[in-house]
Here is the input.
Amino acid sequence: MVAYVYHSYWAILAGSLTSGLVLAGGAWLSSGWLPSRPGSIKAARDMLTFGLGVTGYNLAEFLSRNTDGVLIGKVWGAASLGAYNRAYRLLLFPLQQVSNPMVRIMLPTLSGLLKEPERYRDSFRRAVLPALLLVLPGVAFMIAPADTLVETLLGGQWSEAAPIFVALSIAGLLQTSNSPANWLFLSQGRTKEYMRWGLFNVSTSILAFICGLPFGPVGVASAYSISECVRAPILWWLIGRRGPVRHRDLMKVIGPHLAGAFASVVTVCLLHRWLLARSIGGIPDLAACFCLSYAVSLTIVALFPACRGEMWRYARSRGG
Here is the structure.
């Protein structure tokens, strides 16, 4: 409405403020909470400690998500920043729309099972299968035909974003597979470790941005993907040290999906080149690559006994 009346960039701010106020107001009304006299700080110490860890991680995450744009805009200008931003949002922003709701679902589920380690592990395995099987093949699909995808979705004027998109792709794959780590940190109350991980994440990300900055937006994107490759095994080593889900469990759950995703990237790349050689592009090209990516991922994941067992269990539950 503000944009329609005033035709100003202030409409973006108005939209963000309105969204925040509506969500806060709805949460307040639905919770039934009313202001009262403050209670004892000692009684709320655990809650405050938990909240401090989450806040510290979120602050670090905010810095890691925005520092690259600030540096590119400062050194390479608005045009390069625009191309980088389009590629970043096209690849990584949709992933956040999937991972954030999953945290809200899995946090109360897993938190209630902490005293039952076997059920905790079982719930984690059952949740990871559909989450990663839904998202990872989609990310893998977007990588190989990035030139066609960017031109189809954004237009030919954004062709500069395609190589940036490809350079960010490894980060997209790994961040998707890493998203269940948030469920484990938060449901186990390990927010101090969570905050430390966030600080390590932002420190290494900024270092990567600085190293890649002399090579332009593609260099920044490539350096970010490389840093994600370094961080991923550290994250899973850290999360598997404690709690019901150990390193072996993580390898059984996450490994097959990553193998399927990388196999999809290779096969989709070959199909994309074959189609282009026959002057088949646009929507038919993307549709074929999309179907192949999911077919290959599903096949690879099904080769692993643990994942195949989960698939059969899902199939029986849906059939029943």
Remarks:
- The chain has a mean pLDDT of 88.
